[in-house]
Specification:
single chain, 285 residues, alpha/beta, Rossmann fold, 11 helices, 7 strands, 19% strand, globular, binds S-adenosylmethionine
Amino acid sequence: MTPSTDRSTAGLIRAALSLGDYHRIMNDLYEEVFGEHQMVHFPYYRRADETLLEGQANLTNVCLDYLGDLSGSDVLEVGCGNGVQSMFVASTRGPRSVTGLDLNPANVALADRIATRKSLFNTAFLASDAQDMKELADESFDAVLNVESAFHYPDKPAFLREVARVLKPGGRFVMADILMKPNRRGRLLRMWERRLSQNYWFPDSYRNAFARTALRIEHEADITAAVVKGFKNRGGWFRDHPIQGPVRRTLIMTFMRAQVARHLYYLKNVCTYHVFSAVKTTETR
Ligand SMILES: C[S@@+](CC[C@H](N)C(=O)[O-])C[C@H]1O[C@@H](n2cnc3c(N)ncnc32)[C@H](O)[C@@H]1O
């Protein structure tokens, strides 16, 4: 499938119905609108009039601050998507290396291309499953980052066990995830979530699963309000960016508005947005 087909109306409709298409289309659209690939996650509000990219960087920084000083460290990002966030870590936090891992080989190939273009030599990307990261050695990372990806994993205990396995003792883990709150959404929405591999968990399920690993939770924050507020800045996000032709512009704006409406509906009625940070202990449980 060529990029131009991907960016068609049919491509946008497919994006609403399959996870692989969704990420490919979001990658393509962000590149088209902003001139280069961007992180694919929600914005975190700090100031009125923030751009989407500033809001997204805020969320990354909120997470990274829980990991402490990363200079000279080996960092793993699980669910790295197009790798832009891993490259942000590599270029802003002075790590020795950043490894990005994603289930989708197309994302990994894209990450490799972007890193080569940016001449970033301390990043590496691999296609693997967060629930079984068999390519990675035990105790090989100082820090693990996971942003807006875990809600896709059906087996979260396996994911947490894998994080505990690859972290060095005393290593840190931070995860930003979309969690489920008690709600009464209909069967159609639940079917559609299954198509997009959305396997939301409850906060207590996470707390219990962490307790069965060597990962001791240090902080837990419900940041839903800051994320919802982050979307309030959306009025100016695309205004100054050239999109070829009025029809194309209307199509993209309609798609983006629909995405934002869906995210806000979920964040207000179905989900909460949490950050968990943990340290790997040497105590046996
Ligand atoms: C919303 S994107 C987030 C990308 C990146 N973390 C960021 O913040 O820009 C979620 C990513 O999780 C990946 N993913 C879904 N299930 C996965 C799994 N089982 N193992 C690894 N990655 C997975 C998807 O392929 C997608 O690239």
